[in-house]
Amino acid sequence: MAETTPLTQTPPARPAQRLLAVDGLRFLAAAAVMLYHFTATSTVTRYWGGTPGADLFPVLNHVTRYGWLAVELFFVISGFFILMTAQGRSLAHFTGSRVGRLFPAYWACIVITALLHAVWSGGRQLTFGETLLNLTMVQELFGVQSSQVVFWTLLAELKFYLLVAVLLAFGPMTRLKVLGLATLWPLAGMLARAAGQYELGEVLVARYAPYFAVGMLLFLLRRDGVRGNGAVLAVLGGNLALCCHLVIVATGHATTLQGVPVNPVVALALMLLCVVAVWVASSPRVEARGRVTVALCTAGGLLTYPVYLVHSEFGYATIEALASRGVGPWVTLAAAVAVTGALSWAIYRFVEERWSRRLRHAVVRAMTPTAGERVPQRRAATSSA
Prior knowledge:
By secondary structure, the chain is mainly α. The chain contains 15 helices and no strands.
């Protein structure tokens, strides 16, 4: 295939089930992050009144202590889906799709978290001005703490979106552009850190750029096929090597943070398994079958983002409220998960379902005031990307 082949060609029609497996995978990743924060991090110790690993969940903790790897899985999936999202879209449509997808649920989460902090002193206490700055999603660029612990990942996502948007601003996404981005971006980040330029490394998302790159390259292989794609496979191999290095470094940090041993071999195996899972789940041969499976994967795709956004502070508040009253750890954990699920459903039902599409259309209209372009309707298969 020619190096200048645009990725904006109209993709072939696909059944909606094709990507339901990835929706299910995304939800499992969100659940893994949630359980990691509820049963493994050092932060949650003060809410439980005991060490989760040693005292409360000695068996479960051997699994959930690796839940932080789900963030890396999210970044791989994001690299795959964002490149797919850029197909057939102008810069305005791409920007509108991202703004409409991210911000309504995020703004709702900021508001309800501020209400929680007004009545609960155990969480992250922000001033009114800091809360307003959190609405931008770039608060950490100004040295302001996020109201929920996971929000730092959204800034990493925004930086990735910005890179894709810059490429779109100079014309359609081509195979050559994608290969260039997947090669130069992670390499530049690693070189910046190696040279001691840590601030530049943060700007370039050096610790996570290889995961986004892996996702993009998996998409190219899915679109074009593996055979005859030696250049893509070579760049993929290089990025996987960088991912392995990053995981080994991160296991040391995870061990220190959690106070329990995190095995680098296990972490490496899980990270590679995550990459394989994305490859398998994105295959057109993998379909969700049966009404129950389809319903679960669909619901998982819709609730993943709200679950990811709200779980930490509301889960911690629930854990503290119940554990301090002597409620058993398993009942308390179930209650924290239930509270997270209920809030997530409410955010989807009353915020995302009503406002995401409206905001997306408004952004597109604002960026194309005279073009009269119609916002393309996306199939259900990509609605949760």
